[in-house]
Structures are given as C-alpha cells and as structure tokens.
Amino acid sequence: MKILHIVPWYEPAWNAGGTASAVASLCKAMVKQGDDITVYTTNDAGQGKRLDCPLGQLINRDGVKTWYFACDFPFKSKAAFYSRDLCQKISETMIDFDLVHVSATRHAYGLSVYRNHKINKIPYLISPHASLMEAWINKIGSRLLKLPYLWLIESAIIRHATAIHFLSSAERQASQAYSYGKSSFIVPNGIPCELFAPSPDQVAARRQSLAANNRTILLHMGRIHPQKNIHLTLEALAQLKQKNILANTLYVLAGPDSDKTYKSYLCRRIEEYNLSGYIRWVGPVPPTDISTWYAACDLLVLPSQVEGISMSVIESLACGLPVLLSDKAANSTDITGDPPAGFVVRESVQSLFATLHYILKYPHILKQLSANAVILAHQKYNIHNIAQMMKQAYNDILANTKNIELQWN
Known about the structure:
By secondary structure, the chain is of the alpha/beta class. 42% of the residues lie in helices and 18% in strands. Strand 3 and strand 4 (49-50) form a beta hairpin. The mean pLDDT is 94.
C-alpha cells in the first residue's frame, strides 16, 4: 500500500503550528511499522520564513519520502496556500499511489487532489485538524473569507472525499455543519511518548534557570496568538495578585510570536496589571529542549477559543505536566476522565480565576495529576498505537470496511 500524504507544512516547520509536528509524528511511526509513506509539502516555515531545504527533490526524513516545493502565494502569512510545483507534482504522480491523505483545509492542494481524483479515481481522505469546527470558522481569522471558500470550493472537495479523519468525537460533532454528512472516523494525534522523559538533572537545571525552584510555574507552550486566550489568563492572574495569592507563582510564555500585534497587546496588559515580575517570555523552544520545559513546570494553561487535539497538550501529558484547558478543546473530556489529568474551565476570566485560585491554594494536588497525565498519554496518545489505527483506517477505505475501533459513522 503506497500512501501519499499532502500537508502545507512539515517538519522542521515547527513555528507553523501543530499540524506539521502531528503529521510528521504519524508518518514516521507508520514507516517504522512497514508502510510506504510519501509526503508532499511546501517550504513554508511559518512566521513569513522559508525552510532551508532542497526543493523539488526526494529527501529521506526518518524513512519518510519527503518532497518540499516552493511557495508561490504572495502573502507571507498565507504562503503555504499555493505552490505551483506542488500542484503540478500531484497531477503528475497521484495515479502512482493507492490512497491520498490530505491534511488541513483551505489550501490549493485539496482542490488539486479533487480534480485529479475525478480523472484517476484514486481515493482520498481529509484530516481537517479542527479547521472545520464551527468555532474555528467563526472566531479564528476572517469568517468573510472562509465561508465563500467553503461554499464555493471546499464543499466539493469534502463531498467527493472518501472519508474525513477527525481527531475526536467532539471535533466531529463541532464540524457537522461543514462536513456535509461525509463518512468519518476518529484517530487522535499521537507522539512517541518514550521520547518525552527528561532526566531529573535536566529538569532541576531548567527550574534553576528560571530562578523558580520554590514557585508554582504555569506554562503556555505554543503560538502567541489570540486563539490561545492568553489575555484571559493575564486578567485572572491580575485578580489573583489583588487577592495576594500570586506571590509564589511564575507564568512562562514559550512559543513563536505568530501575531505580533497580539503580543504587543499582551505586553501592554502585563504593564497595566503590574505583572512583570510574574512573567517570563522565552520565545520559540527547540524540539530538543521542549520536554525539559514541560517537565520543569507545574501546569500547562491553555484556555483557547478552540482546539482540536493540541500537540502541546499531549506532549505535556507525556512529560507528567497536568493541563488546564477550556471546554472548547476537542479532547477536554479526556482530561477530566478517570483518572483526571487536569482541569477544564469555561472560556472566561471568572472560571480561570476560580480554578487557578484553587490550584495555587492547594498546589500539592498537581503531583497526583502529574502521575495521571503520564498514564493518559501512554494509553490514549502513544504514536505507535495511533499509527496502527491509521493503517486500519486506510485498509478500511480501500476495502470498503468499517472497523468498530475507529468509530466510523
């Protein structure tokens, strides 16, 4: 079985968001289990930058046959939307594969796959990575641009796909308006959990570098973007400061500045709330260091407007870091399951304040949640299990079967 995976961003485009790392993790794990995987992607690195890599030629990345193509779209922030050479490569070679897997939506490659599917009948599936959720359509980016594209172009791409791959049942439920009744299955994102286990010495050194050995460290890991609702966390911290509960707390903001206007706004709020002594900006974190950052902190705080299954969340869990999510995260029910691995809040300052107040007053509860977090990561998000599930999904599509484990609808 030869699989072509098409994705606008691929490793090492870490600053472009979680899709790049999620797809890379999946493809490498599938190769390890013996599958033949080819990836077509762009050289977009995120934040208006380009990857320094050979273009239009085969590169072996951990066994994955990877091809990068130059972006041609004129707007840097949306550079990955279109690559003439990538679209041409799809047209020339799609017939050589048994199945095409398209990740993300609202890019030209889905349209190219759809057009070639009409000619060669090669089946294809789509992984929206939360981009068809109603909250994502309505709150993130320009709704006025998204909706016409969805109605005029994307609807045809989705309707003619063989299946849609959702990351969770909550994502599927929230995407009903834009999935047009298409058959779908569920396989979550995954990571190689065994690689997220830094040594105690590394963790101690990281905490020492923050001068926070006796403080409760709250962490934001990911893009600095309005979607993440960092401003709500700052407002909750300001209220906690007024209640004299913030003295032994540090809030670490790690990740690329994908929205510089938003970062400037956050900086103004920090000054206004007099929180500078409680904040550390650390910028993008290299993949080689990321597990020590997770393990050195006490709680990941991610009260986003909308999330699929955030790679930051499952990486945190694997490192034993409990999480605080908004109820808009597609896997929020996993976090509060049995045993619980964190907290779920409403998308409001009041809810954040109340939960953080409880955590900071009784920080010892985070130790038990830490052990639960590791259990959840290995049980639910281990990439080796995820790769087997995805292979079953591919087999189901090609054989017209529906394995019950994948929750086909």
